[in-house]
Design brief:
Elements: H1 2-11, H2 31-46, E1 52-59, E2 62-73, E3 78-79, E4 86-87, H3 93-105, E5 126-130, E6 147-151, H4 158-163, H5 173-181, H6 190-193, H7 216-229, H8 233-245, E7 266-269, E8 272-275, H9 279-283, E9 295-296, H10 298-309, E10 313-314, E11 317-318, H11 322-328, E12 344-346, E13 351-353, H12 356-359, E14 368-371, E15 377-381, E16 386-391, E17 394-395, H13 400-410
Helix pairs in contact: 2-13, 3-7, 3-8
């Protein structure tokens, strides 16, 4: 009965959304088979991988599944609400990518533009070359990386940042250590902090490998948006993306009246969930991270995903042309590039599944999307006209849940 009621609820119009609900069978999905989404998520709840989740699936422009699972807080055991708010972390990156693509369409930026054209401090970047430590073993706590630098073979470009081939603070020991020396301070803005990264060496020669830049690359793109638009990054996103798409619950900093809807954040360790203190993030009101700063709910993010599936348009509001979305979702960093896994290329701010069989993914070739550090996940499948949203709030997540969710959705497609 529980599953039946949830599926009936999904048929009703969604008050805050512009995408309407429908019976799964109307869009070629099986109501009975969609129940396996809950079964898959519940297995992960029972295994203490997550506390709760919200799952949402749209096909052919209509929402056919919208369900909650588990609790939003383990202590209070408050059930997960459909409008639960989640810090989506790196699922912010595709939104930043769309912002850059909008400015590209306006002729204000090219993919080939050097980043130093907008942030002069990025001119003449160096590349770190690691050295083996010589002499006696380092004392505990004093194992600073040993390296020297060489000039970059070329400047890093906007395309490099969008596709994670820039080497800008992308996990190498030298860049990590040097970035810590110029770390962002409380109260600073993108304009305050990012120029200092010009003193940090790149992890490799630009374009020679793929290595994820968790923060620096897309925060830099956020600053480029500010420079080109004359607006703060949060204002640009609000006016140019969120308002046109009817996204009413997406922001960098939640207002007080939204705090009760914020799902508790957990860290998964030793088969248990430990609460994570997120107060510093909730208190931040000055730094608008294009890499991972946004918070939203599933119903809002589906508007963004559906816009991409529609070729840049939703309900008469066009953000991008179909050709620009196609370029965004094309492979720019192939799976043959060092650092990329087999079957999974990378586009402009999104991963692109170029060979689902090789990747071990249960989606169509050409599907694209991205994840967040605290377990959020979305993908767009142009072939099957599907958008899937998974919202959880656990870091160190078992990413097998992403694959289980995709499988449960794809096996429910019956025509």
């Amino acid at each position: 009965m529980k599953h039946f009621l949830l599926l009936v609820a999904a048929v009703l119009p969604l008050s805050a959304a512009s995408i309407q609900g429908t019976r799964p069978e109307e869009v070629g999905l099986s109501s009975e088979r969609l129940q396996r989404i809950h079964e898959a998520v519940q297995r992960h709840i029972d295994a203490h991988d997550i506390a709760g989740a919200v799952t949402l699936v749209a096909r052919k422009g209509r929402i056919a599944h919208f369900e909650t699972h588990g609790v939003m807080d383990l202590d209070s055991k408050k059930p997960m609400p459909k409008d639960g708010l989640f810090w989506i972390a790196s699922m912010s990156k595709p939104i930043t990518g769309v912002a850059i693509m909008m400015l590209l369409e306006e002729g204000k930026v090219r993919l080939t533009d050097p980043v130093s054209k907008f942030i002069p401090e990025y001119r003449g970047l160096k590349v770190a070359v690691m050295q083996e430590r010589s002499g006696p073993p380092a004392a505990a706590g004093s194992s600073a990386p040993q390296f020297y630098t060489v000039p970059a073979s070329r400047e890093i470009t906007i395309r490099d940042l969008l596709s994670h081939v820039s080497g800008l603070v992308s996990g190498g020991p030298a860049s990590t250590a040097e970035a810590a020396k110029v770390a962002r301070k409380p109260g600073e803005t993108l304009a305050d902090y990012l120029p200092r990264l010009g003193a940090v060496p790149l992890d490799f020669q630009p374009g020679t490998r793929w290595s994820y830049s968790p923060s620096a690359g897309f925060d830099t793109l956020g600053r480029v948006v500010e420079i080109l638009s004359g607006q703060s990054f949060d204002q640009f996103l609000q006016q140019r993306i969120f308002e046109p798409l009817g996204m009413k619950d997406i922001f960098f900093h939640p207002a007080a009246d939204r705090l009760p809807r914020v799902a508790t954040t957990y860290h998964r360790a030793a088969n248990a969930l430990e609460r994570v203190d997120m107060q510093a993030r909730l208190d931040n009101t000055t730094y608008f991270s294009g890499a991972g700063g946004l918070m939203t709910d599933a119903e809002d993010y589906i508007q963004f995903g559906q816009m991409l599936l529609n070729g840049g348009e939703l309900n008469g509001k066009r953000l991008l042309s179909p050709k620009t979305v196609e370029m965004m979702a094309s492979v720019h960093a192939p799976d043959t590039l060092p650092g990329r896994p087999k079957g999974r290329g990378f586009g402009l701010s999104v991963q692109v599944v170029n060979d689902a069989i090789a990747a071990g993914y249960r989606v169509s070739d050409g599907s694209y999307g991205w994840d967040g550090a605290y377990g959020t996940h979305f993908w767009v499948d142009p072939k099957e006209k599907v958008v899937g949203i998974l919202m959880i709030q656990t870091n160190n997540p078992n990413r097998e849940l992403d694959r289980d969710f995709e499988n449960a959705v794809m096996q429910a497609i019956v025509q």
